[in-house]
Amino acid sequence: MSYNYYIPFYLDTHFFMSKKLFLSVIIPCYNEEENLKKEVLREVHDFLKKKKFLFEVIISDDGSSDNSLNLVKKQIKNFKNFRLIKNRHGGKPFALWAAIKVAKGAYTLFCDMDLSTPIFQLDNLLPFVKGGYKVVIGSRGVGRDNFPLYRRMGSIIFMSLRKFFLLAEINDTQCGFKLFRTDIVKNIFPKLEFFRKQQRVKGWNVTSFDVELLHLIKKQGEAIKEVSVEWKDLDLSISKGGGLSRYINESKEMLMQIMRVKINDIKGFYD
């Protein structure tokens, strides 16, 4: 099977690239005013501009109600290959899909606005592209600096339950730092249950879409490489809603979604 995408070669720690766009970085945005004030987009820009490959950065807004849009516009106006997409409020998967549909790179990187996984950790993922991997995902480990105790304990419980039902070989499905070959994610993303249900979304609806996405990629026969990355909770956002109550409600919903994915799989829905 042939593709029109350019596949890079790794030479002396640098990618030798053609004039085709190699990487699309997608950063979802919902009420990220506090994180944007840290100049996170400048960090992304300053890192990528030194690379030998061509890139684009797509900030996909999810109907932010704070000052995020104005801050993004102001910060990227002089950044080459950065653009903003404005969407109605639909949740994180909705914002990601809006950007995936217009991404032009051979590969697509998901990256959270808070940069809890620093953008330079991309260098940990890229070498595995040489080895033929089309999906390379970041893994945060269980330490997770700056995480409150309830979230550390919750992540361990979530991982154990999720591995019992799905993707037993993957430790961290929820890290927001993931690299995909673009044609794969464009094909699979709209098949997620999130889009089939078309629920009305309130707040920053994250869901366990990552689990279903990776499960579908695995079902398609693609190998998934999990790579350790640096991670420290740097999210300063206060207008997404948050705290223990949000975490508990979100965790319950995510576990229910995992069960639904498992049931769908048993019924042959994904075959």
Automatic annotation (TrEMBL):
Molecular function GO labels: transferase activity
A Gene Ontology biological process term: protein N-linked glycosylation
Every Glycosyltransferase 2-like domain range: 24-189
Source taxon at top rank: Bacteria
A Pfam match: Glycos_transf_2
UniProt keyword list: Transferase
InterPro entries associated with the record: Glyco_trans_2-like, Nucleotide-diphossugar_trans
Gene3D superfamilies the UniProt entry points to: Spore Coat Polysaccharide Biosynthesis Protein SpsA, Chain A
PANTHER family associated with the record: DOLICHYL-PHOSPHATE BETA-GLUCOSYLTRANSFERASE, GLYCOSYL TRANSFERASE
Name this polypeptide is given: Glycosyl transferase family 2
Source organism: Candidatus Woesebacteria bacterium GW2011_GWA1_37_7
